[in-house]
Amino acid sequence: MIRTILDFCIRERLLVLLASVLLIVYGWYSTQKVPLDAIPNVGENQVIVLTEWAGRSPKDMEDQITYPLSIALQAVPGSKSVRGKSMFGFSFVQVTFDDDVDFYWARSRVVEQLTTVTGALPEGVTPTLGPDATGLGQIYYYVLESTNGMDLAELRSKQDFFIKYALQSVEGVAEVASIGGYVKQYQIEVDPDKLRYHDIPLRKVIQAVKESNIDVGAKTVEVSGMEFLVRGKGFIGSDKTEPETLKQIEDTVVLTRHGIPVRVRDLAQVQIGPSFRRGALDYNGKEAVGGVVVMRYRENPREVIERVEAKVMALESELDGIKITAVYNRTDLIDETVSTLTTALADELLITIAMVVLFLLHVRASIIMAITLPMAVLMSFIGMKVFGVDANIMSLAGIVIAIGTMVDMGIIILENIYGSLSEWESKGSP
Asked: Which of 120, 222, 261, 346 has the least CB density, counted as fewest CB within 10 Å?
């Protein structure tokens, strides 16, 4: 078999040369297309279901949300385990699948199963899927620095309502999570003594505020051949400043007795304040506002980071003095990994050529080694592309180690060929 292959290669040298060129070209193309990361994805194939129910204890979350969801999701085809966790106002259910199950197929099956259990959950509670990313999808961290004196609440609002959505629109980004600062709220602090005095239950106040914050649609009116839309504008804060919005809430009528309205301001104090939070972001010893960019499953992190950085540069001119500063960028780690592979390959090539020339005194044999080693690396990338293997610190380290083995085998084979040729020449060629 080997003799047949060698005979064919010797007879068809042009064909072998063309095949080698095609191999090099396709290998180089594969190096550009294989997802290049620094950290291997060793996480499980899993789908996460998140459910929020504000103000509820972990016991309530466990009994009314986590347990029903865990039971229902055990019926998802291909799942091998379901684990749930209940926290204050928050439920976390993790469905783990076999490794051979397609990631997005698993997510679609979970969504289908959730439709069967939604009716058994408390009113207003809607489970949602986590982002289509892995645990190693966090590729870019940034903080916001203000040059015009914005406080943490203003920076967080800018992050939540502008920067976050702009970065989420970048191709390959699954989620942008906000960190730090204060989430602005319109807070109504009800006085229980005033509720008792007016004999009004708290639910009436909640209902009145909820019903006052809604637009009402109607039909149309035709006047002089023109059609006008009729609607009742009721959204609180629509085209209003913060003081005007507070006044809108204060003027909300809870109920009317004997023609006299009882308003929210008669029962409570309305103010702007921060939402409850459990943590903060520290940057160089000062509290800051920032975000984390999470990459989609099976995306190329270097390409996604390049697109994110381009989007950041385009955004800064529209941020009114806010500067987006990167504090973590996985590109640096990826470049170090690639540099390690390139350096190892170059060093081994030089050492191999020097050893072959030194011991065999044969330049052509050295050139053969210098050509075959890079071709072997390119062939490895072709296999990685065909079989869907990511390039990371583990797989690239395997290639570096394999280069040493190929060098040893190449030297042994060349030495045997050289020895056989020398023996043949010493006996005299026919």
From this structure: 222
Closest to 297 in 3D by CA, of 179, 139, 146, 422:
139
Angle CA(62)–CA(68)–CA(71) in degrees, nearest 5?
A: 115
Query: How many residues are recorded in the chain?
Result: 430
- CA triplet 168, 171, 176: central angle to 5 degrees? 25
Query: What whole-number distance in Å separates Cα of residue 127 and Cα of residue 115?
Result: 10
CB under 8 Å to 54, separation ≥6 — which residues? Answer: 89
Q: Which of 113-117, 267-271, 392-396 has the lowest mean pLDDT?
A: 392-396
DSSP letter string over 119-170?
GGSPTT---EEPPS--TT-EEEEEEEEESS---HHHHHHHIIIIIHHHHHTS
Q: Residue 286: phi, psi to the nearest 5?
A: -125, 150
Report the C-alpha gap between 323 and 319 in whole angstroms: 8
Q: What is the C-alpha to C-alpha distance for residues 270 and 169, in angstroms, rounded to an integer?
A: 36
pLDDT for residue 360 is more than 70: no
Distance CA 394, CA 376 (A): 18
pTM above 0.85, yes or no: no
Q: Mean pLDDT of all residues in the chain?
A: 85
* Cross-strand partners of 260: 257
- What is d(CA 379, CA 402) in angstroms, rounded to the nearest whole number? 12
What is the pLDDT at residue 261? 93
**Residues 230, 220 contacting (CB under 8 angstroms):** yes
Look at residue 202 in the predicted model and tell me its pLDDT: 92
